[in-house]
Amino acid sequence: MSFLTLEGIEAFYGPSQALFGVDLQLNEGEVCALMGRNGMGKSSTIKVICRLLRHSAGQVQFDGKDMAALPPHKAAQAGLGLVPEGRRCFPNLTVQENLIAAARPGPWDVSAVTRLFPRLAERRDQSAASLSGGEQQMLSLGRALMTNPRLLLLDEATEGLAPVVRQEIWAAIRQLKAETGMAILLVDKSLAELRQVADHAVILERGSNVWSGAMTALTAEVADRYLGV
Amino acid sequence: MSRARAVNLLLFAMLPVTALVALALDEPFIITLATKAAILALAGVGLNIALGLGGLVSLGHAAFFGLGGYAMGILAHHAQTFTPLMEAPFLIEGTKSMPVIWLTAAIIGAIAALLIGALSLRTSGVYFIMITLAFGQMLYYFAISWPAYGGEDGLSIYVRNGFPGLNTLDPIQFFAIVFTLLAVVLFLAGRLAAAPFGLALAAARQNPERVETVGLSPYRLRLLAFVISGAITALAGTLFADLNRFVSPTMLSWHMSGEIMIFVILGGVGRLYGPVAGAALFILLEHILGGLSDFWHVYLGLLLLLVVLFARGGMIGALAGREVAHD
């Protein structure tokens, strides 16, 4: 049994079906890239894992536990740490307060997060709303780490950021993989970066798996067919 | 020292300075006004935890204020009539001891808030406002129709309750008790707001879904805030009834809920010292304008309108600026 298993996941937004049988497996210490063009169900899959979206068919298991009945906060307590699309920090709290509000016992504390992102230490007493997009993204990642997750889910963590900041975020993700061995599920469009960090990949199209395998097996032809514009 | 801290310090000192000047001028009535302002500020600090930190617009906080008042009234009534409150299954006597009454009132307020909050926090927005209002009014009408404790006429207490080592009938000594309690509760409320619980509560107000994804239940956070808020408001109700040596259903009415909310808004929602500023201003207006016209609430309404339109952080926001991040 994998650390995270999704089998035949179907999910709806009202009457509209978004997922048509998504399968995904992730082992402890692995990094998996969840890819696909816009609107293909990547974020919906992340939402199903975090219980922000109920699935209508299929099974979600995390660390051998069926997640179906859990509310989102219980899923997070089970060890899921989400870095959501669009960052969504708590704007009126300071950087430090954003981190403390999410804190759960474990090795990740404010000093560990600020070691990973020294820029957050400089902005410690600033409100999150006054941070740049890149700093907010670092804060969002730091906040997820403060929950001391066993599986980190990053939904478009580098979307809309300046190239320099994107490099900082990718460096942090590589550091997390190398130093902590944390399982990570990544949604992103930067194939070149994903190739450096992910062990395997799952590609979705119209809410279904169309390709999955080792990252090294993802050829330019596959990328062109399923990820090209 | 930051401007916000200086304004807070000034506001905090305002009440005891007023009381001491009044003592020097032999004006016990002014001391009583300062005591009333401190008690209402305490009620406001209670509401501010739910409203300012948690974003819970409760129109039923008079329920806790009144329950605190009735806890005092009933215990003191049985003590002064030498009749037990309850004989079976175990004996409960009345008491005139302030600390015992405070503890009882805070526990009753917390239990009532737990019951009311457990139901009403399953809703939000206008439904939450209406449910809290409905609970408050249920208690109000219950008190009116309960003749054993005075019904509509209320319950008078002949002698103010006692505090070990102090003469509570002396206005300045009673003020000292009330102000010390206010200071302690303000200190604890400040610590609460800066603690992980307070930060998570503020975060739940801003984005409840995001709070869930970090493993916290917004419902539980809000319920705990509501319970703490109810306990503090009940404590204020006890002191208010003790000040007047009288408790009546008016303390439970929605007008009271509205008044507490008004001075929280006047002072600054979510600002720790907002209720102190708001309550002091409210008492000042009531005393000055109330002497000039029976319709002084019209001016209060105008002031509230101006604060809501032009000073979003209330008086403290206008004086100290937006230095506090939690607004």
Automatic annotation (TrEMBL), chain A:
The keyword Acyltransferase does not apply. GO terms for molecular function: ATP binding. Gene3D superfamilies: P-loop containing nucleotide triphosphate hydrolases. InterPro entries: AAA+_ATPase (IPR003593), ABC_transporter-like_ATP-bd (IPR003439), ABC_transporter-like_CS (IPR017871), BCAA_Transport_ATP-bd_LivF (IPR052156), P-loop_NTPase (IPR027417). It comes from the Bacteria. Pfam families: ABC_tran. PROSITE patterns: ABC_TRANSPORTER_1 (PS00211), ABC_TRANSPORTER_2 (PS50893). Residues 4-229 form the ABC transporter domain. Keywords: Amino-acid transport, ATP-binding, Nucleotide-binding, Transport. Belongs to the ABC transporter superfamily. PANTHER family: ABC TRANSPORTER ATP-BINDING PROTEIN, HIGH-AFFINITY BRANCHED-CHAIN AMINO ACID TRANSPORT ATP-BINDING PROTEIN LIVF. This is ABC transporter ATP-binding protein.
From TrEMBL, chain B:
The chain crosses the membrane at residues 34-55, 62-80, 100-119, 126-149, 174-202, 223-240, 260-285, 297-320. It is found in: Cell membrane. It is a multi-pass membrane protein. Keywords: Cell membrane, Membrane, Transmembrane, Transmembrane helix. It holds the Pfam family BPD_transp_2. This is Branched-chain amino acid ABC transporter permease. It comes from Roseobacter sinensis.
